[in-house]
Amino acid sequence: MAYDFSTLNDKEFEKLCRDILNSKFGLDLQDFKSGQDQGVDLRFCSESNLNAIVVQVKHYLRSGYKQLLYELKNTERANVTGLKPNRYMIVTSVPLSNNYKNQIFALFHPFMQTPNDIFGQEDLNKYLEADPELEKKWYKLWLSSTNVLQTVLHNAVLGRSAFAEQKIRKTIRLYSHSQSYDDAFDILSKHKYILITGQPGVGKTTLANFLTYHLLSEGHQLIYIDSDVKDAEELFANDNKVKQVFYFDDFLGANYLEMINPRTSESAFVNFLERIKSMENKYLILTTRTTIFRTALERYEKMKRIKVDIARKEIELGKYSELDKAKILYNHLYHSGLNQGHKDEILAKKQYWKIIAHQNYNPRLIEFITDPNNSSDVPDGKFMEFVSNNLEYPEEVWRHAYEQQLTVEEKILLHIVYTQKANTQFDESKLFFTDMLNYEVRTYNHQPTANPFQTACKKLLDGILKKEVTISSKTENVSFINPSINDFLNNYFLNNDEVRWKLIKGTTYIEQFEQLKQYFFNYNSSKLKFLQEESSRFAEFILDTFDEIKSLHSPTADIRLRACDLLCGLFSLNESSSARTDSRILQVMAGYKIADMNNATRKHYLSLMMYAVPNGPLEKHVTDNWDEIILKLIETAEDESEYEEVLGVFEEYGTSFADFVCNDLVYSKVKTYLKDYIEYQTESWVSDDKENVFCLEDWESSKYDVKSKRTEFLDKFFITDDFFKEEAFYKEEKLGDIIEQNNQYAASEAANQKLVNKQLKDDIATDFEKEIEELFMGIYNPEDPYLISARGPQF
Known about the structure:
Layout lengths: L9 H16 L4 E2 L10 E3 L8 E6 L5 H20 L3 E6 L5 H11 L9 E2 L1 H9 L2 H6 L1 H4 L3 H10 L9 H10 L4 H13 L1 E6 L5 H14 L3 E4 L4 H7 L8 E5 L16 H14 L3 E8 H10 L1 H5 L1 H5 L2 E4 L4 H15 L3 H8 L4 H5 L6 H7 L13 H10 L6 H7 L2 H12 L6 H19 L7 H9 L4 E5 L6 E5 L3 H11 L2 H9 L4 H11 L10 H14 L11 H13 L6 H17 L7 H13 L5 H8 L1 H10 L4 H14 L3 H4 L3 H27 L5 H21 L9 H4 L5 H17 L17 H9 L7 H6 L5
Parallel strand pairs: 3-4, 4-5, 6-9, 6-10, 7-8, 8-9
Antiparallel strand pairs: 1-2, 2-3, 11-12
């Protein structure tokens, strides 16, 4: 494999050269740091000469041989004369012909024994090819090779921007190795799956991508999971010889929690995890934000049950050590293309310490501030001010692009992505866009460009937006490239009344209005200063445009039901808006066919029932149709919480469920509905319990617990459990196999060392001051006044 070494920064290249020379010649070369390098990057000491072997490393790929020769003549020759080494070597990433080597040898004879002590790009490649173990150790280099990269691309999913060649090369180049990669790879290798958690911007996706690149390079096929594990189930190969890696980015995040169905998705995930663990050549990589993962563990029953197991395969990215932060910053600066004036500002007076020590430091921000496209108009002398502002207000990194660089159509496209729900299809986004653009044309006489949607997409994709393909439906969707863009827009609209209302008035779909309510008008979380006034204005707008509101999928009757639910969720409306809302809700409820209710619409209908004023006309409508409504609510329920919502309705209306089921016909219908659910739930309970059966006593205990759970649930609805057939769920002939499998798995787990990487915390971290100073400056002086100032308590 031929490398040009461009993915390595100068410090990484130096360490690679050390490893190559030590391996090739059996040396023990050490990094040498004593002030500016004085002609020494690596050296070997003997008893008679501290500089027995001196190695100078030059990573001059960008500047080439001419600049290399100039530097050797004008600086290094004098340094070598002073050092007087027994043997002097030069290693460079520059390609060297025999003639070039002869010219360099003539400069350094007699300290250089032969031209063979000069190693160019071709020599390094030859030595790496002869030492595959060393080559594989330098995975950042190895992954960038043409052969490996083509294998990665072949096994990746087309349409995934993270797996386009240019993106892979950039990810490899900017990645800074840390212990988290080694720990993560160890966890994945031992347990077949890994969950990477952390706050936004800490590098979860980058680490997951690197793990995925590695598996792709070994011939694994990538299955990218968008939002539903059934996508992966359809493509799961039951053949052990077929290598597959399943990658679920933002697991439990915006793409999943919103649509999770406790009757299917949680069980589906648990079952899918078991398939991964039980088969060879199958791996699962998941990422999620820490707060969302913790919420899911608390909220979903089956997630609680796998908490202990999944925690042992979790790696949490969070507090980086100061050295990790420094390496990430240095690597980005090295590869950034920033003008030298901007780089010098970071080095001057050791300003890099301000960045490293900042409380809002994260890799995403570092990538932003070192991208020259984001600071092209920042004059020299003002770059650190630009850096400090973005660190202090991280969500503001998008303000300049939004206000100064985007056209009207491009802003509209961002607004559409902001207001649409997760996994909105690309063609549906275009419908939203068209309506909002038409509003801009009607209201502000805007003159759109030709093909405005396609033009805006082309400009924003892979810079601010990403477009991806859903596996199961083969449809595309467009979303923000990272969550901080959504955070910025949210704050922007909250703090700008005019643009917020322009956004609202340009909206036409109920799906968007529901999102806007969540953003701006939630009573418990809204940051609007005048919530009653703003909520009332929003309600009036919904009422004024009620019959024009559209939906992507819902029929007209369901749109109106959803719109009424939205209205009744607006708290503290003024008297006029409240009266209009009550009138509209009564009209819609009276005209809604109860028989058309389904699981998607029942929550809206239920909200309106609970909204009814005691002894008011809406309550009368409900009580007049009580039996039909209650039976339909039970029929359309799909999980325990939805069934219990029905009991809440009885409590709210002051009636008894026991009296309701006294009627034989009603009892029979309720029993039929509940039987379907409890039979499914029993199967799930038994399946979960089987993992904890290690003896006959555990088996019998499971039977008792499951029967108790069934009875407890059915008793709430005054239904007798006279249909439980224990033998249908507990196959006695399977008991021996279950016990044996569980004991084998437990023994295997006990043998594995637990790997939970909680990255180094500041209060117990090693002092990396010396290493960081040498990284940036090549010298460490603890008495340097700029260092003392930079490391002071103000930081």
